# Entry
Amino acid sequence: MNELQKSQIKSLIDTLNLDLSGLTVYTEAASGAYLFNPFVALMAGAERVYAQSTDSSYASFEQVKQSNLELAEKLGFAKKFEIFNFRDHRRLRKSDIVTNSNFVRPIDNDLIKQLKPTASLPLMWETWEVREVDFDLQACRDYDIATLGTNEHEPPVDMLPFNGLLALKLIFELGYDCGKVLLLGSPDIFAGPMKAYMSKVGIPVTRIGCTQECEHSYAELTTHFEQHGHEYSFIILAEQQLHTEILGKHGFLSFETVQAINPHIKLGVISGGIDVQALEKCNIAYSPKRIAPGGFMSYQLYRLGFLPVVTLFAGGLKVGERMTRNRLAGMSRRDAEVEALTSSPAMDFPA
# Structure
């Protein structure tokens, strides 16, 4: 962590008025841009941070452990930071805030039942993004554990500009040639800023999805491509609302049709369901090479650097801080959540 990064994190903490003094946080330890997340909590005054990790395609546990311990030592937090490679029930029982970070998931009954009544489970994303396979909301209710999402589409945790920049970065990585973009994506708070940013820099773009702001619906996608597919240089898939197949023989547009009409088009996948086997069989250029299932991000915000990652994480910590302090003050689970909705960048679950 250099001085500029340290300054940006301190600015985030000040903006959010994030104060974790006296609280213990259970989160993940990871690599790259995610290396900094546990230290946001520590810089905000956390009494202790427990960081669960594991081997991944990005780094081994031993590599993550070494880099995290080195940073903890450098920042003076060595005595407050613990890293391990398993779900630790003992540490969970001591924790005040538990994040739904990647290596901590799934947030299931086994995890939730370990928590003390005053603990909270803030989501480091918006509530509409929750996947049942990762997060058991009913178990949170059953054990009376406070949980809310993080509002990403307005200050102080406004991620919309980052979404627009992410689409631009992917287009330039694919090799921008002043061509037209076919953007496939919903909802508006996700794909909307992507179209807006492309338009601002002069990139012609047509958006197809399942919301009123789109020029066409997915039901019209094949017909539209048959008529206009030759005009496009790029397809950018940024679908977060529908978790079903978008591109493929069971989706709204097959790769056979794409290749027949415009074999030179380039495909960028931010999120959305794809028939990966069919894609690999055709000669369409695409990025990234590792494509996640529908509902998961294939091209994530960490590609823009550490700032969007720590911004969202710090916002989630603020949501957790308010819920936990409210519970410690004697509020009921629901009252603690309601207060946090007014005093933090929290987002409620649909009724």
In short: The chain is about 40% helix and 15% strand. Residues 306-328 form the longest helix (23 residues).
